Amino acid sequence: MSNVPQAMCPRTAPVPDHPTGRAVSAAAVEPRTPGLHVSPSRRAVAANDRPTISFELFPPRNPDAAPRLWNTIQQLETVKPDFVSVTYGASGKTRVTTRALVRRLLRETSLNPIAHLTCVGTSREEITTIVGEFLDEGLRSFLALRGDPPTDQSDWAAHPDGLQTASELVELLRDIEAKRCADSPSQAVRARVRPLSVAVAAFPRGNHATGGTRAQDVASLLAKQEAGADFAITQVFFDADDYLGIVAEAREAGVTIPIIPGIIPTTDPARLLRVQELTGVPVPHDLLDLLGSADDELDRHHRGIRASVDLVNGVLDGGAPGVHLYTFNQHHAALDLLEGAHLDGGARTAPDLASWPQDTAPARSTRD
Ligand SMILES: Cc1cc2nc3c(=O)[nH]c(=O)nc-3n(C[C@H](O)[C@H](O)[C@H](O)COP(=O)(O)OP(=O)(O)OC[C@H]3O[C@@H](n4cnc5c(N)ncnc54)[C@H](O)[C@@H]3O)c2cc1C
User: Fold this and answer.
1) What predicted TM-score, i.e. pTM, was given to this entire model?
2) Whose CA is nearest to atom 42 of ligand 1?
């Protein structure tokens, strides 16, 4: 199994934004989803000759949801994503289920998992133990986050021996790895074969949860890079200019690591509104109107996919290295979006709408 960020770039070398959009192969592949019309100029490309694609998953909330998630994972695996990330519930409340899902992904799939990890409410010692457990399982990639304090606990206080920022967590991850390598020559060799990689978050419109502006987030991103981050994944946004704007400001400030746009397939208005509520990122009215005036669910799905394809094309044409899709543990919209943007490598062999729209999950956030 190749190491994801190593494949993307060595830690020390800056990686340029894609200069002219994406590489294309000679063979055009028509979209297979009935009624889905996208630009014919987009062409399917092989998995290693295309922008990176990746997915966010969350651990199943109850055992009944596990088989459906596993089916989703198998469907997503067909497009050979570069990695999948697994969320960590607020204040670490999914520690056990996140670890179980990551372990299963490592053991039973060809996928490269990245474990989200937060530091809010946890001591340095506890984080060190958790990281050690993941590393012992064979995990080599983390998404280092500060996390949000719980909103439902009025008596909540930061851990006295905890970390304050994501960049401190990046530093701790690097220290833990360095100590493991110093303590064991075997670990040192393994680390050279599969280096530890650390991703971080970026916020194209500033971090609403912390009241931060985009300029503050760029400063924070620079600190994360200096602490040893390899690449960043953005929060959701609905206008390509938001992404292109933060990349431009970050580059100006000296941030050289790749910044991958985080994209939500915009097919479900209820979910979009829930995401707006949680992230503070406003959903454009014209997008909601577009979805709201659809004839039926299939029409709404097509409209949403087309809008998402436009967003994906906008960021890739602006130089994004790839796209990270917020799946909400569902594969249909994510795969239709990739197919519409000709990023699925022609992997799908048949229209995959047979079970849609029955496979619907509650319109909840992946962070719950
Ligand atoms: C892709 C992605 C995945 C996520 N996954 C999860 C998840 O699985 N679980 C979860 O609970 N949450 C998740 N979140 C939410 C995230 O944890 C929160 O939004 C949190 O409030 C900020 O996290 P951070 O890692 O960016 O923190 P930080 O970068 O540490 O920022 C926290 C605050 O400190 C400030 N700050 C930090 N360092 C500096 C500096 N050097 N200079 C100036 N200001 C600074 C920032 O401006 C900000 O106000 C995710 C967010 C994203 C974008």
Assistant:
1) 0.86
2) 220
User: Based on the number of CB atoms within 10 Å of its own CB, is 185 exposed (0-12), middle (13-18) or buried (19 or more)?
Assistant: exposed
How confident is the model over 149-171, as pLDDT tens digits?
A: 777 766 666 788 999 999 999 99
Backbone torsions φ then ψ of 262, nearest 5 degrees? -90, 120
Q: Are 92 and 121 in contact (CB under 8 A)?
A: yes
Instruction: Give the CB-side neighbour count of residue 37, counting CA atoms within 13 A.
Output: 2
Residue 56 amino acid letter = E
Phi first, then psi, for residue 188 (nearest 5°) are -65, -40
Residue whose CA is closest, atom 41 of ligand 1? 220
Report the CATH number that the domain containing residue 239 is assigned in CATH.
3.20.20.220
In a domain, 319, yes or no: yes
Look at the chain and report how many structural domains it folds into. 1
126 as an active site residue: the answer is no
Task: Decide if 259 is inside a domain.
Answer: yes
pLDDT in tens, 79-116: 999 999 999 987 777 888 999 999 999 999 999 999 99
Q: Domain range spanning residue 232?
A: 4-24+43-265+310-340
Cα of 295 vs centre of ligand 1, distance in Å, is 39
Nearest CA to ligand 1 atom 17: 147
Q: Which residues pair with 57 in a beta bridge?
A: 86
Atom of ligand 1 nearest to the CA of 209: 21
Q: Are 313 and 272 spatial neighbours (Cβ–Cβ below 8 Å)?
A: no
Determine which residue's CA is closest to atom 26 belonging to ligand 1.
201
Helix (H) or strand (E) holding 286: helix 285-292
Enumerate residues lining ligand 1, CB below 6 A: 87-88, 90, 116, 118, 145-148, 165-167, 201, 207, 209-210, 212, 216-217, 219-220, 223, 233, 235, 262, 367
Peptide bond into 357 cis (omega under 30): yes
Ligand 1 atom closest to 58 (CA): 8
